[in-house]
Every structure is written in structure tokens, then in C-alpha cells.
Amino acid sequence: MRLMRALWITAGAIFTGLGIVGVFLPLLPTVPFLLLAAACFARGSERLHVWLMEHPRLGPPIADWHEHGAIRPAAKRAALIAIVLSFTIPLALGAAAWVLGVQAVALTVVTAFILTRPGGSVF
């Protein structure tokens, strides 16, 4: 039991760290990592779970997702900018057509998901 608790806490800490790094690196998704961290902390440490959920910067996006499945407009804009960059850079570097095709399909699906979430308009 202690080993599993330690593993959940360790995973939560790693996902929290990745989420924080994602605040500064636009291509790294912040909220999905924070959602994973919250789930891990819920299983490993009530104290850390409460800390994350009540954190003034990290907690609100998690609460928005849990309560409404919502993504805030600023987060949608940041994600869409990252998506455009994720496609434009390989395009400019002359990536193979099949790579661009796979990317286009994946990024289109992700864009559709983001734009159909509640939380307000991007524009």
C-alpha cells in the first residue's frame, strides 16, 4: 500500500512539474498534465490534491474542466497558436508530405476538440 501511494505521489509530482513547464513552453500542454497530477494526487495524497486544487494559478483550469469540461478562451488561443506553429515549422523546414499529412489530421482533430469545448469564444 505504501509503495502504491508513493508511486501516485511521484507521478503527481512529475505531472505537476510538466504542467508548470508547459506554462512557459507553448508546445507543452499544461492543463492535461495538471489533470493527470490531480488524479494521481487524489489517489496518493489528499493534502497534495487539496493544495493543487486550491492553488491560485493551477487550480482554476482543473476546476473548469472537472465542473464544465471547459477550456478558458486564453488557453484556447494559446493552444491554437501552438498548433499553428506545430504545423508551420515542419512545413517551412520541408518535412516529408506524409509527415505533414499525419500532422494535419492529428492537429485538425485536436483543434476541433478544443473549439467545441465550452468556456467562451476564442475570438
Give the helix/strand layout.
Blueprint: H1 2-24, H2 30-44, H3 46-54, H4 59-68, H5 73-92, H6 97-116
Helix pairs in contact: 1-2, 2-3, 3-4, 5-6
Summarize this, please?
With 123 residues, this protein is mostly helical. 79% of the residues lie in helices and 0% in strands.
Mean pLDDT over the residues = 90
Q: Report the C-alpha radius of gyration, rounded.
A: 17 Å
Q: Specify the oligomeric state.
A: single chain
Q: How many DSSP helices? A: 6
Could you give the count of β-strands? 0
Quickly give the structural class. mainly alpha
* Beta-strand content: under 5%
Main β-sheet description: none
Structure description:
The chain is built from six helices and no strands. It has 123 residues and is mostly helical.
Keywords:
6 helices, 123 residues, 0% strand
